[in-house]
C-alpha cells in the first residue's frame, strides 16, 4: 500500500537513490509492537514530514534511525549501501544528526559554547580553548543559516527565546557536517513568528542539500515545509503523500485511521 | 542587528553604566556586587574601630583567610558541577593531622609530609567521586558520611595526646614567611604587567579575527583598577611585615584554577555538566570522569587549606578542620556569587567570599563581641547571601 503511494509522488527527487532507505523496520517493547514492518525513505534535498498520533511510533522510528534504540529487525540503506544503525555513534559517523525536542542545551553557557560543546576547538596540551576561532566559526555557521535574530553569539542560552534555542540546537547538529538531519517537534511550543523562522531555517537546510526528517504534530507546519509526508499509525506506515497533491483531510484520515474503518480495527487490537 | 556585524552602538551599549547596573542586579556581575559589599563592611568596622583598616590588621586578615580561601576553591569546583562536598572541613583536619604526625612524630621530611597530606586529600576525593559516580549516591550523603568518618580518622591519627605542636620547619614557613618590601613590589609589578599583557593580547586577537571587541577605554579602566588594587595591597602589606608567602600561594592557586575553569576544555566541561548533565553526556562529555576528577581536586585543595591552617596556628589538634570551617568554606563562594544550583560561578568567588566572611569575623573580634553575637551575625550574613542567590536566580528565570 505504501509502495503505491510512494510511486504516486515519483518525480525528480524520488528517481535518485534515496539518502536513507529503511525496509521492514520493526521494534517491540515487550508485548507492545511499536514499529511494524515500516518502510521509509528520505532523499538529499528533501524534507519529509513524519506525522502521526501520540504512540504512533514516530519517536520510536527516529530513535531507531539515530541508533539510540535500534530496531529489532529490518534493513537500512544509506546512499544505497546496507548499513547498521545499532549505536548512536554508527548513525553519527554515517552523517545522521538528530535534534531532540528537549534540545539538550546548557542554559548557563553562551551560544558559542553550546554550539561547540563536546567538540571544542582547542590548542596546546591542556587543552586550551580557542575562543576567537570558535566564535568566528559560530558566526559563519549562523549567518549561513540565515539566523539573524541573535544579538550576540556570546548571549547565554538562558536569555534566548524558544525559537533562538531551536536554531542554536539545529546549528549545532550541523557542525558534524551531516547529510541527514532529524528534527523532533521543532516548532512545538513556538510562537507564530518563531515558527516561521524555524520553518525558513528548515528550508535553508533543504537548499543546502541536506535530507531532513521533521517529526511534528502540527499539520499546518508540515504542509508548509515538507515535500513529502509519511503517516505512521499504530506502528505501521498508514500513508505516504506528496504535499502537492495531498489534502489536509487525506492526511488526517490516515492519522486517525478513519478511511480504513472497521477493517483496521483488529490490527489495532494486535498492536495493543 | 545581525550576528555578523554588531554595530558600534551595540557594543557601546553593552558596556554602558546602565547596562552594567542591570547586569549587577541580575547577578551577572556578582564580583562587583560583592566588592561593594566588602566596601560597606570595611567602612562599618572602620567607623566602629579605627584599627580595622590598619596595616597590621589587614595583614592579619590576609593570613586568617588564606586557609578557608584555599578550601573554598575546591568548593567552587564542586558547586560548579551542581554537587556539594560537606567533607572538606574534616578532610582539611585529617590531612593536616597526617602531615603533623609524619613530620613531628615519625621523622618524615616536612616537604614529604606536606605532599603525603595532600595525597590523603586526593585519595579521599577519588573515593567520594567513585561513590557518587558508580553508585549514583547523592554527593550530599557521601560527603556527609565523610564529614563524620574522616573526623573519626583524624582522632585516630592524632592518638592519645590529641594535639601536636609544629616546630619551625617548611610547614610553618608556609604562613610565616614575609617577603622583603622590594620583592613585594617586584611581585606586584609582575602581576600588573601579566594582567595588562593578557587583557590587551586577548583584545588584539579578537580584533584580528574580525570580532567585536571590548572598547579600549574599558580595557584601560580594568587594568587601572587591577593595578590600583595590587599597588594598594602591596603597600599595605609592606607597611606591616611584607607580602606573606601564604598570600602569594593563595593568589597563585586562584589564577591557576581560574585559568583551568575559564580557558580549558576541561573547565568548559565542568560548567556544562553543572548546567545540564544530560546535555553534556549527549555531547560526548565523559561526565563521570569530570565528576571524579573534580571531587579529587576539591579534597586536595581542602587538604592544602588544612595544611595552611596548621601552619598558621603552629599546631594540629582534635578540633582542626571542625567547627565552622566547613560552613565558611561553602558560604564564602556562595556569598560572592557562585550558585549552589550548579553551572554558575567563578574561582575568585572563593577569595572574595573569604574576604567578606573573614572581615566580619575579624571586625567582630576587634570589637570584642562575644561568641553568641558572632554566631548569630555570621549566620544572618550567610542566610542573606543565599537568599540573594536564590532571588537573582528567580529574577533570571522571569526576565527571559
Uncertain regions spanning at least 5 consecutive residues of chain A: 1-14, 261-272
Largest sheet of chain A: 6 strands, mixed
Mean pLDDT of chain A: 86
Largest sheet of chain B: 2 strands, antiparallel
Uncertain segments of chain B? 1-7
List keywords for this structure.
heterodimer; A: 272 residues; alpha/beta; Rossmann fold; 2 domains; six-stranded mixed sheet; four-stranded antiparallel sheet; 11 helices; 12 strands; globular; disordered C terminus; B: 400 residues; mainly alpha; two-stranded antiparallel sheet; 17 helices; disordered N terminus
What does this protein structure show overall?
With 272 residues, chain A is of the alpha/beta class. Chain A is 36% helix and 25% strand. Chain A has helices spanning 2-8, 12-15, 58-66, 88-94, 111-115, 131-144, 162-174, 192-207, 219-225, 248-256, 265-271, and strands spanning 20-29, 32-42, 47-52, 73-78, 81-83, 96-99, 122-123, 128-129, 180-184, 211-215, 228-233, 236-242. Chain A has a six-stranded mixed sheet with strand order 6-9-10-3-11-12, sandwiched between helices. Chain A has a four-stranded antiparallel sheet with strand order 2-1-4-5, covered by helices on one side. In chain A, strand 9, helix 8 and strand 10 form a beta-alpha-beta unit. In chain A, helix 7 (162-174) packs parallel to helix 8. The radius of gyration of chain A is 19 Å and the shape is globular. Chain B is an all-alpha fold. In chain B, strands 1-2 form a two-stranded antiparallel ribbon. In chain B, helix 4 (55-80) crosses helix 16 (348-366) and helix 6 packs antiparallel against helix 7. The longest helix of chain B has 28 residues, at 181-208. Chain B is globular, with a radius of gyration of 22 Å. The two termini of chain B are 19 Å apart. Mean pLDDT of chain B is 90; it is low at 1-7. The interface between A and B is medium-sized, with 33 and 36 residues.
